[in-house]
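Minutes, project check-in
Item: structure for the 200-residue chain
Input as provided by the requester:
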Amino acid sequence: MKTQSQLPANSKFAAALAVLAFAPALAQAHPIPGEVHSFMGGFSHPLLGLDHILAMVAVGLWAAQLGGRAMYLVPAAFVSLMTIGGAMGMAGIHLPMVETGILVSILVLGLLIAAAVRLPALAGMAIVGMFALFHGHSHGTELPAAATGVTYAVGFIVATTCLHACGVGLGLLAQKKLPVPAVRWAGAAIVVAGICLWVA
């Protein structure tokens, strides 16, 4: 019988993806201290990186700009593809240029917001989904040795959803309450922040 270390990468990926698919249901069970630690590790990972925060809030801001079905479909696409990227990271599947992909996501999303680019929902989902793979892979590869993959994944999924919701909420509020194009200015600020991270 093959040991876990002998399993091919695609088998590890399939197993990790299957586990993550059932993560929401499993998370409803009574947590034990180790699971709580795993959840908090996953929850804190997106919140401790300015690159992740900027990109995930930007997804929400752009979704608010797009409006209509895109307001929930675009963030949902990010979370879904991020989960797949997380499974890839946990399974040890290599994804090239992860950090570069994360930084590019900040710049591109910021530019889309600053220019108020309006695309069909499907195109928006494809763009954010591509970038979500990099963010998810980053989360997955940094799974702590003592953490449980399921609860860790639920943690970063919940944190990401909260950041998206913040972006959508701020975007809608700014569009309704502020007389200036505040969302577009926020996009420009995200681009500047992304450049600063790139050169840092």
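Outcome recorded: The first helix runs from residue 9 to 21.
No further action items on this chain.
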